[in-house]
Each structure stands twice: as C-alpha cells, then as structure tokens.
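Hey,
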Amino acid sequence: MKQFVEDSKPIYQQIAEGIEDEILRKVLAEGNQVPSTNQFARHYQINPATAAKGINLLVDEGILYKKRGIGMFVAEGALKSIQKKRQKQFFQEYVVPLMEEAKKLNLDRKSIVKMIKDGMKEAGDDGGK
C-alpha cells in the first residue's frame, strides 16, 4: 500500500487510485482480494468510512465486487476498464493542453512528433524499436 502524499485529492479518492495503480502494475490481479476497509483504516490511520468511500467508488465502477462475508475482490475486466479510463484522462489532462500550447507556438505535427520521440529517447525508451 502506498502512502498518501497528494493533498489536492481527498483521501478516499487516493485510496481508489492506489488500488487502481496496483491493478495496473499487476500487483493485484483480477480475482484477487483487496485489503479490507478496516485494514486500510488501520494502515493509514483514517476513519473506516473514508476507506469505505474509496472502495465503494471502485465497486460503483465495476472494478471491485463484494463476496458477502469474505471481502472485496478485483472484478474480471478491471485492468482493461482502468486502462481505458486512464487513457481518456491522459488525453484530456496532457494531450489537449499540449496541442493547445503547440498551436500557440505555431508547432506543426512533425515538430511535435519529433519532440515526443526525443523525449522518449531521453527517458530511455526507444519507442518500441
């Protein structure tokens, strides 16, 4: 379980995103049990209702499901669902502002692609080549 460092988001949202991150990193696989509300509350020293709110966000999205009397589990298809949701967020939070700034700077598509490729090389990613 990761520690909460982002003050701008409510703790319950950070709990939900932390579980999503563990699913994306395949630490939690589909069908795996997730920590209980009480485990989250003890670990992070928060109110159990706050932990439950974060878990319930993921239940509402179909990422987690409850087995009565046993606990919460990662739903089948959760990984793909999270990837799709995060890709949409990535587009809105990064690509749209990037394109707006590129337009202001009069950068064409070729220049933007070159910058991205250069950035990938700098980060040690060869772009799959």
